[in-house]
Amino acid sequence: MNNPLIEFLAAYGPVANGQNMYDEFVLKAAKEASVEPLSIEEDRSQAIAGILMSDNPRTVILTGTAGDGKTYTARKVLDLVSDGTAAWANEESELSVVCSKNGQTITFIKDLSEVRVGDKKKLVPRILESLFGIEENHEIFVLCVNDGHLLKTWRENAADDPRADMSIEAIQGMLRDDLTEISDLKMNLFNMSRTSHASTLDRIIDAITTHPGWEQCAGCPALTADQPCPIRVNRDILALNKTESVRARLRSLIEIAAADDAHLSIRQIMILVVNALLGDRKPGTPPLLDCSRAVLRAGNNEYAETNPYSNLFGENHPPKRRQNVPAFQILARFSIGGETNNYFDDALIQPDADHPMPQQDRYGAAIFESISAIYCEDPASGIAALRPAIRDQRRRLFFMLTDEPNGESRQTSPWLLTAYHWGGLYINLLRPQGTRDEAQYKSAKREIVKGMNRALTGALTETHDALWLSQPSGVYLGSEKPLLAFDPIRWRGSLYWLVLQDPQKPGRPLRLEIHTRNQDEPLSYLDLTPTLFEYLVRVAQGALPTSFTNQCYQDLRNFQIRSVGAITQAEHAADAPIILKAVDTSGEQLSATPIDLLEETL
């Protein structure tokens, strides 16, 4: 039995030509398979339709990388503003409709890069007219384009129009500052790539695992077999919705990647989910299962080839293809399965009551037990098979273990199986007040300051209640001594204080800010990306990870220089006296030594 839904879902998997990045490709695949296209719930199309149907409609520009949902969103908007009467054929690049609510003519441009050169010369002045709105009842647009091509098109096709330079400057500012609208232009800009799609992950998984096409599996003998269809097994694993699950951990990975400026588009997330669902890594076969091979894998008990915990990382594809798929590249940064400790490996190779680990019927001991037994009996001959198998099991544990960033169970934190040992703690910091663990939040603030003090002073200090921002490269009487021109900065202070600012939008990192009175904007700030946070906590814990020390240290030094300069300037403006002190790093706690006392001891 063949379920056409499986053929359709395979169209979302990694393909060599990258066509599945485009909305029209998967629409065609759905039509050919005679199944309903995936419908991902989202609220952005409703907001855009509201702008277009209002009494003062404005042009809307949808920008972002391929696969971020520009065309999908535009199709949904078209359906809303036309009351379902307009359809967007794939061969059309431009379509105009009259809005049923306000009579406004709205022109949809599916992809500006596909518009012919001669047509762009005519189109760009029309778009500029809509942005500045000089004429009454002017045309407005819904324009899909990536930001680089947008600005390039403006320059090439409206060089003589002064409004082009004005709009380019305005749009660049909007992209830089994450603004959706400004007063200078009658336009709304939605950058689809400047957000985390972690919240969309659940909608994607639900759309795939609850698709009505699964009903066509009814009657398949693999449903009731002792060794069930691996596609259905993987579907159940993906559908599981609890703290210890693939979807919950993958959501955290997407959040961390976004905060580290590694954006996963909607289509890339769909690639990951489909690859975990249908992946088949048996050599010499296509990388995605169809129904007949799924039955064959089940009948031969070959579940090791369909393991979703590893195929999520692209293990069913050759290395060259994995390198060309951004989703696999981004997940590879976490080194999940490559990181471990003795506790995990002992628990996997020789399980006992002292090392309790979660199990999984098809992808746990059923696969690994015989491999570990051979290794224990003869390590020399069993090590080759053990290495990839235990990596698969570590990955499984990452998705199944309970996560408690602090406390007695820290040694079994799933994040210790990744390069981000403190990833769970960072995720907690990203949560808004009222939903996060406040004890962990306070502990993290102490670790941040302690790590910064250690990195900037070069001393193993225990000071965690105030940030000691010394003058860079302070030298006194031939002896290197960090010098202070102002008091250490605490979380609460009379003149200067620290603030750990929550991300203003999804997909942004935390921000450590220095504030002062009578000023709304911070004097200085440091983006606390997950990588920098990992560095600071590890330094605070006594380690100095060399793999990313230099870049993180330079980020801290730049923050130090900017902050000292900003505070010194503020002190000069207030005519405050500058009193230099030396930082005493000899004890566990940092302290200040007056310069005159220092002179007596040198």
Brief overview, please?
With 602 residues, this protein is of the alpha+beta class. The protein contains 23 helices and 15 strands.
Chain-wise SSE layout:
Layout (H helix, E strand, L loop, with lengths): L3 H7 L12 H11 L10 H9 L6 E5 L6 H12 L12 E5 L6 E5 L7 H16 L7 E5 L2 H11 L4 H16 L9 E5 L6 H12 L20 H10 L6 H14 L6 H13 L12 H9 L8 H4 L7 H5 L2 H7 L9 H8 L15 H13 L1 H22 L22 H8 L7 H20 L8 E2 L7 E2 L2 E2 L2 E2 L4 E2 L5 E6 L8 E7 L7 E5 L1 H11 L8 H25 L7 E4 L6 E4 H7 L1
Parallel strand pairs: 1-4, 1-5, 3-4
Antiparallel strand pairs: 2-3, 6-10, 7-8, 9-14, 11-12, 12-13, 14-15
How would you describe this structure to a colleague?
The protein has 602 residues and is an alpha+beta fold. It has helices at residues 4-10, 23-33, 44-52, 70-81, 117-132, 147-157, 162-177, 198-209, 230-239, 246-259, 266-278, 291-299, 308-311, 319-323, 326-332, 342-349, 365-377, 379-400, 423-430, 438-457, 530-540, 549-573, 595-601, and strands at residues 59-63, 94-98, 105-109, 140-144, 187-191, 466-467, 475-476, 479-480, 483-484, 489-490, 496-501, 510-516, 524-528, 581-584, 591-594. It has a five-stranded mixed beta sheet, sandwiched between helices. Strands 9-14-15 form a three-stranded antiparallel beta sheet.
